[in-house]
Amino acid sequence: MPSLEEQVTDALKSISRNEDIKSYVQESVELYPLLWKAARRFVTGESKQEAIHIAQQLKTKGYAISLEYIGENTTSIEECERVKNEFLALIDGSGEVSCTPNDSISLDLSHIGLSLDENFAYTNLLELAAKAEQRGISIMIGMEESSKTDAIILLYKRACEKFTNVGITIQAQLHRSEQDLQKLLHYPGRIRLVKGAYQEHSDYALPRSIELNNRYLEMAAQILNAKHPVTIATHDENLLQELELRYDLIGPHAQYEMLYGIRPDRLSALRHGGNSCKVYLPYGKEWYLYVCHRIAENPENVYRALTDIIRPYDGGRSMDYE
């Protein structure tokens, strides 16, 4: 019998994929602004300029940043073109933030056409990578459901034939990821290591467990020992403490990353310890799926969400970072 916490997590991940619920929330005059109060803990805003404003504040404090226009599974060519143009404008906007190669634009390939046609998504990815190269920053490809993993890795490898500023995310929860990692280490792009937030069948993935933590640490060890560019993306205190015991992450090839609004005090401590630290900064109106995943990762966030709805935070979240 799953624990109550596991049931809450599964329920949140399930409704995050329910298009009817998502549409209802987005179209509801009453519900959308109410839930947006809770979403603001994890999302910089609905506009590009709001995200860039917070990025500027964090850059002055010494953080690297990763900006993303939230969305995935775009269903029309016209919408993909609009999304691509938004990303191009975001890359241009990064010029206001004094970005470096340690900074990135994050995206899901299904947001720019993977769900329609792989070659179309690849063409869009190359255009974005070229623009990012001009601005001296990187593109970080997100990892989506396991059904898309082969296509995502294939397009990443193809992009690496033309650009060195494209990185890829790998999910430790997937059984295949350890084998995928061995191949990805032969490509130049930064590897962003995450546990994985998608609800996957046990045939394909591990649940949250000590076994998953051990796999994460083993994969991190392989990347760090290879001195390959890596982003350690986790908020898990057990993992962070173990990594601090085993490794000195200080150096240009390795960085810690945490999501905006989650554990800013811990990331601040890591930065003051001399480590390169990055804050992931999402924006846009497609925040429903993203926020459901953030709450599902730690069901205690349900209490934070209710508190934020009742007593909205009236300060800038960037002020929480030191």
Just give the CATH class: Alpha Beta
Second-tier CATH architecture: Alpha-Beta Barrel
Fraction of residues in helix: 40-55%
Q: Strand pairing plus helix content: what structural class? A: alpha/beta
Number of E-type strands: 8
Beta-strand level of the residues, as a percent range?
5-15%
What is the rounded distance between the termini?
42 Å
- Whole-angstrom Rg: 19 Å
Approximate shape: globular
Instruction: Classify the fold: give the CATH topology.
Output: TIM Barrel
Main beta-sheet annotation: 8 strands, parallel, barrel
Uncertain runs: none
Average pLDDT for all residues:
88
Q: What is the count of structural domains?
A: 1
Q: What is the strand arrangement across the widest sheet? A: 1-2-3-4-5-6-7-8
* Number of continuous helical runs: 13
Order of helices and strands: HHHHEHEHEHEHEHEHEHEHH
